[in-house]
Design goal:
There is one protein chain. This protein is an alpha/beta fold. It has helices at 22-34, 54-68, 83-96, 113-125; strands spanning 7-9, 39-42, 74-77, 100-102. It has a single domain, classed as Aldolase class I (TIM Barrel). The protein has a four-stranded parallel β-sheet. Helix 1 (22-34) packs across helix 2 (54-68) and helix 2 (54-68) packs parallel to helix 3. The longest helix is centred in the middle third of the chain and has 15 residues, at 54-68. The two termini are 18 Å apart.
Length: 126
């Protein structure tokens, strides 16, 4: 995949009961596409991944794929404290149609360069 242009993160709108506002999410995705972004980041740190359940994160991936519909590439944020969750999210992102992954160092961890590379390889293999 070749990255060109501007990739913007999609925030996660919530209803008053703190459930995902799926129509609001779809509107945000459509707005960013209409503004001419070259790609979108789904479930990144701006997407409040830390406040969502595993299932809600999967909903984000599936909803993004449905709304984007191939009009733009999208990256799935798969950050988590646990490596097994990162792998599960990476596999779910692939299955949902993500064009790539956005992955950082595990929060609160201080991996060496080699450990960080291994973390990335494990996620990519998933």
């Amino acid at each position: 995949m070749r990255f060109e242009g501007i990739y913007t993160p999609v925030i996660t709108p919530f209803r008053e009961d703190l459930s995902l506002d799926e129509p609001g999410y779809a509107r945000l995705v459509e707005h960013q596409i209409a503004q001419g972004v070259h790609g979108l980041i789904i479930g990144g740190t701006t997407g409040e991944f830390y406040a969502l359940t595993h299932e809600e994160r999967l909903i984000q991936f599936r909803l993004a794929q449905r709304v984007i519909g191939g009009r733009r590439p999208w990256l799935a944020g798969v950050n988590h404290l646990r490596a097994d969750e990162v792998c599960a999210l990476a596999a779910a992102a692939r299955d949902a149609g993500a064009d790539g992954l956005l992955l950082g160092a595990p929060p609160y961890a201080l991996p060496t360069g080699r450990e960080l590379a291994q973390h990335i390889f494990v996620a990519a293999d998933a």
